[in-house]
Each structure stands twice: as structure tokens, then as C-alpha cells.
Description:
The complex is a heterodimer.
Chain A: H1 3-15, H2 23-28, H3 31-38, H4 53-66, H5 70-97, H6 101-113, H7 127-135, H8 143-152, H9 154-159, H10 171-176, H11 183-192, H12 202-211, E1 215-217, E2 228-230, E3 240-242, E4 245-247, H13 252-264, H14 266-280, H15 287-299, H16 304-313, H17 316-319, H18 328-339, H19 345-354, H20 372-375, H21 378-394, H22 401-409, H23 415-422, H24 427-436
Chain B: H1 4-13, E1 36-42, H2 48-51, H3 60-64, E2 79-80, E3 86-87, H4 95-99, E4 103-110, H5 118-127, H6 139-146, E5 155-158, E6 173-175, H7 185-195, H8 201-223, H9 235-247, E7 254-259, H10 274-293, E8 300-306, E9 326-331, E10 339-341, E11 360-361, H11 362-372, H12 378-385
Helix pairs in contact in B: 6-12, 9-10
Amino acid sequence: MSQAATASVLAAARFGFAARPGELRQIAADPRDWVLRQLKQPLRPLDAALPASSEMVAATLTVLRDKRDPADRKEFAQRVRGVYLAEVEARVRAAASSDAPLLERLTHFWSNHFTVSGLRPVVRGFTAAFEREAIRPHVTGRFADLLLAVEHHPAMLLYLDNALSIGPDSMAGRLRGKGLNENLGREILELHTLGVDGGYTQDDVVALARILTGWSVARLNDRNPGVFKFYERAHEPGAKTLLGRRYVEAGEQEGIAALRDLAAHPATAQHIAQKLARHFIADAPPGDAIQRIASVFRDSDGDLARVTEAVVREDAAWRTPFAKIRAPGDLVIAACRATGFTPPGPMLANSLRVLDQQPFFAPQPTGWPDEAASWVSPEAVLRRAQWCEVFSRRMPEPPDPGALVEATLGELAPAETLEAVRAAPSRRVGVALLLASAEFQRR
Amino acid sequence: MMRRRDLLALMAGGAGTFTLAGLPGAVFAAAPTEQRLVVVLLRGALDGLAAVPPLGDKRYIEKRGAIALKPPGESGGAIALDGFFALHPALAPLEPYYRNGELLIVHAAGNGYHTRSHFDAQDLMESGLSAKGHASDGWLNRALGLMRAGDTRLGLAVGAAVPLILRGKVAVASWEPQNIAAASPDFLATLRTLYRNDKLFGPALEAGLKAQDFSAGVLGDDAMQVKGGYGPGSFRPLAEAAGKLLGAADGPRIAALDMGGWDTHVNQGAETGRLAQNLTGLADGLDALAKAMGPAWRKTALVAVTEFGRTVAVNGNNGTDHGTASVLLVLGGAVKGGRMFGDWPGLDRLEEDRDLRVATDARGVMKGILRDHLGLDAAALAASVFPDTAAIVPAAGLTRT
Lengths: 443, 401
């Protein structure tokens, strides 16, 4: 089989989600260029009327303050559920229909890197808005800007408790005897920037937590409730030392300076390069590839378009088709993209819950895992098979399965898969077999 | 709709290609042991000082401040255990187990590492290694390896994904309530053929089909549909189903399950509140698991373990931050319980002036249980299950043998 044909399938599946009908032919001219060109495209906002996080944050704060009646709470929970389903559908539709699927994949990647999860009920109304507002605009921008947008966002400040953290010697701290919460400070160092082996200590965790005191959310009595607000009264006064560097008292600017320094730290470059390589190359990516990506990160001052380009330029990313297992969320989008059928929000959300990757409900701040061992178990494989059949049963007009194999797997389809799909008793079963095939389950 | 057991019968009776190659009719037949071992992973760091408060420690009230529990006898007070330690009132469903000698509590337990990262700590707790490396298998899987069960899947992961503790060379089954229509027999039959040369999907699908047929048989089709959901109440249905599966004569012998919600940085609460609700969920679940196991409970040891403890002092938000030592619960009809185990390091001198120090290495407890309860060789345990732990003596006399 030709190299270009292999590269086309890989380009569509690995860097996007899956080829749409006819797309493989467009990609075949120059697969690598097809991927790289996407980095220059603007990322379109989602095509749906969705509420801003500030609206949903304010609504949540109102319910927490005023609505003691269970009926009111239930009504609000239903509203949150409605917003969530609309968000999930818009997100999947965007990825399934995009001409720049790499940008959608990057949005999901960074959203997972900076996990905010509805397992903390207080943030449930605006986890998806967080992705739209803080992640999406920055995936080909500077890492530092992405980091600043994320750590300023009410969803992150509430999810990791910083909204309530108060400097012990601040005015509010002395008045109320409340104090520091180190949750966000720790996860910024461990998960968002340096990585757990990035060389920080418990003192650095506390220092960053102190620096970030006052970073919170405007309350209901504020002119603009539900947006980021720096509360001077809660900010720990005085100079702080983080990773050997002294930050003089500068209110909110202290945190901005500290985050910029963390973004520029060599350990951050290493940590991000390692995660990108694992996502786009293999579960255990080659060390030299990681080093090259990290050096582009450092040399470009964290320019994510250039960092992503470095990943795409790694030969290792093109060597082995189907090296990665499709995570359930990827599988669902790939199925929608390949077949042209995107189910409505409730079915999508239910699918993803059954497949154990409900969007914006990651179990922990680390986000969803990115290696085969976490996704391939007896139960999970059976679920995937069941889901593929259910999905194909719900399609209004199933496409010709043989043509679908050609359009998605091209020359990489094993003869046996092609035969089984062609021999299927119905179009629906044929489509289900393609989706469940070991090749379509990978990218 | 055709039941999966019918499907297997159909396959076995039909074309020769679809017989259950090399496996006995029942999934878990011919187990080499009747003993059961369950590990419950409490993810997020359980506050051991809240679950089992050392009311007798003279620094307790001062150090815990707003989240100190009231003494037994007062309204909402803790439940007295041995005069020094008490049980959080939300753990009341576990009190009878303590009184009956089926609950052993190891306080100030650590897992042999020092990190305040949840994720590193959970990896180490599950891999059984003392230092970070690339952990690809878990200690419970390596213990299964010593049990020489052949093709029989003795191990069961409750949940769709197999947690690291059960990952490794020995194949295990997994189970989770399903909320999706069963696939049709023909479709699955074709898929089995297509997957047969795939190293990942082939064995997984085979095992998934067999395990699900088994669990449908044990639990009945209704129980297969238990609602998952989130929150403290979501543990009980999983624990109860695990209990039924483990209780079956031809069922699994070793199981691991998860419960989250322990990372109480904010508004942890004392006798009521966020942590209390989670403790209720845990206690209800463990109680349901024990009852669901039936007579097999007599042969069971269950260990509930967390990645580390929490700060002794309350943080700025009436919560607690990441700490060091926590508490380990050992429960079961085969456990010599009704007592506390291990030394108490006291609240006078703290780890880095903030955390409870470790007095007992949990790996010694695990090794003691694996040796005495499952009959595994101590030298092999120190060599392969918990590598480089020859210096950690297996704790003796934890179970009735």
C-alpha cells in the first residue's frame, strides 16, 4: 500500500477524529501539509446560543444564597442539565463537522490538561463555558496566555477552591480567622505547569497559594457578578518566594507574574512536550521526540502553534497507524464524523456516560487518562461493541458500509474487516461492524 | 430479547469456531482458593483523623479545632471504640462489625512513600512500589500471579476500567452495571472473529462476554441496570453487586473497587457535612457488600485504603489539605478484629509540623493478609508483590487462619 494512503488515514484519525466521506482524497495530496494548514485557520466559536459562564455562575450563586426550597433547587438543576446537553451537542457537532479538526482536538486536549469537573456540583453549570471561554481561543496562542485565562476563570477558581482561599494576614483573614486553601496552588504546579517531578516543594505550594489569595469570583452584590474578581482584602500582604524567586507585594499582578514565570519554566516545557507526544505519537513516545518538542516550546516562548507544528513534524507520529486507542469521546466523534450522523445532546451525553467518558465529568483534576491500559478492559470493550450497534441502529439513513470502510480506513482496511462489513446482513450491521472494528477503535 | 447466556449456549452449540476455547463452562470455575480478598481504594485522601478520631489524645481538640468531633454520649458524638479511639458517627453501620470482632482498624498507616500528589500517591499505592518508576502493573495482580489460577479469572475489577492495582500479566474480569442495550448475538459473533488476532481487543471481548454472562446469572437482569450517578450514594449499589458476585461459589475471589469524594479541601464538616455524607456512603456500601456475600463473608478480608491522610489542622476554608498518614480499615468474617492495630505516634510531634506521622506501613498489613489469609509465600511477597520490602515484616495474626 502506498505511503501517501497510509499517511492520509493517519492524518485524519490521529490529528483529527476521522475522515469525512471524500476527505481522504483531499488529504492524500499532502497529508502533513493538510494537518499543518489547520494551525493557521481561525477557530470558529461553537455554532449555538450558549450562556456565558458569568450568567451561569451568577445563577448558581443566587440559588446557593436564596433558594432553600428543594423545588427551586430541582428547577435549577434541570436548567443546568439543559445547558449541559446543549453544550455537549454543540461541542460534538463542531468536532464532527470542522474543516480544522486538529483545532477541535487541541481544544479537547487542553481542556483535559486543565480539567474542571462537574463532580464538584457547584461548577456544573459552566464547565463547558470554561472550555469555550478560557481554552478554545488560546489553543494556537501562547501557553502563558492560555494559563492566565484558565487560572482567572471562575470555573477553575471554584473547582480547585481558590475562590475561598484567604490570606491569613490579609484584612479578611484577620477579621474572620479564615485562611489559606492550597488546592489550586498545588495543582497548578503539579498538573498545569511544572509537572509532579518539576522540582517544587511544599513551601512552593504554599507560596503560590499565598500569591493567588484574592483571586476569586465577583459576588452577587457586585456590579458584574459571576466574573473574575481580585479581592484585595483577601490577598495575603507582603513579599513571597516561589521557586527561589521573590515576588514583591503587587496584588493581582503578583499572581500574573508568577504564572508567567511558571509558563516559561523549563520543567513546564518538558511536561507539556511529554503530554503532547503521548497524545499524538504513542502511549510511550520516544524520548528524543519529547526533547525536540520541549526545545521548540522553550525557544518559541510557548507558542502553541509552533509547538503543535513540532509535534506534527515528528516522523514518529507518522510511522505507526493505529498506535493509539480512541478514547470513548474520540470514538463517538469519529463515528459522527465518518457517518455524517450526529445524535441529539441527550443521546450523546448518555453514550459518553455509558462509555465512561462523560465530558466535563473527569473523575479527578488530572483529567482523563491517555493510554490504552485505561480504556481497554473486558467490560469496556463489550460496552464499545454495544454502543457501536446502538449508534448504527439510531442512524436515520445508514450509509453503504463498504463505501464507509473505503472512506475512513482507505487502504488500511484489512481484507477480513472489509469482507465482514460487506457480508453484513444489513447496512446497519455493516456500519456497526466498521465502527467496532479493531482499526476504527484506534487512531 | 435474547439473554447473553442463551447467546453463549447458541455459540457453543453452533459452528465450531465459536466454542469457548479452552475455558470451562463457568467463568470462574475451579478456583484454587475459597478465601476472598477485597480492596477498596478510597481516592482523594481520606481524613483518618475524622474517620477514627483519637479522642484520647490530649492535643486532639486543640489541634483539630472546628472539625473536632464531640465525645461519645453527646448528641452527634463519636462512637467509643477502645477508650482512646472512636468512630465517626457517620460510620455507625460499621460499629456492629467492630463489636463482633470483624473490624480491625490500623491507624497512622502510610503506604511507604512520601508525596502529596494524589496521582503519584495513588499510582504507588496501587503498584506497590516504594519509589516512582513506570508502573505498569499492580500488586494485587502480581499476588494473583502467585495463586496460579491458570485460565480462571480470579480477579474482578468493579467498574468499566481495570484500576492499576489489578492491571498486569494475569487477566482479570471487570464488571459495571450496564445502561445500554445488549448487542445482538450475530453481531458479537462476527466481532469475535474479527478481534481474534487483536492482542488487546480479542482477549478483552472474550472475557467481557463471559464475565457478563456470569454476572447476569448471579445478579439477575434487573440488578444489572443499577443506576450509577455520582455522590456518596453511588458506592452502595456497586459494593452490593460486588458482594453478590464474590459470594457465588464459582465467582471471583479477589476484587478491587473505588470510591471517590474524599478530597475535602473545603467545608469538610464535623459530625455532619460533606465528609460525613461520604463516610455514610462508604459504611452503607461496606455493610451491603458484607450482607450480599452470604456465607462467603466468613472467608473474607476486605481492606479499605487511601493514598494519604490530611493535615491535622483545619485550613482556611474549614477543610483540610494533603497530609501523610491516614487510617486503614480491615473488615471481614475472616478478620481478627474488634481492636486497633499499630502504634499511635501522637499529635505532639507532627510530620513537617502539619501531618500525622506514619506508625504502620500498610504494606506490612497487606503482606500479612496475603500470607495468612491467601496462603501466599512471604518470600515471594517481598520479592515480587511488594518488591524490596524484605525489611517490612508481614503483620501477623490479622486473620483467622
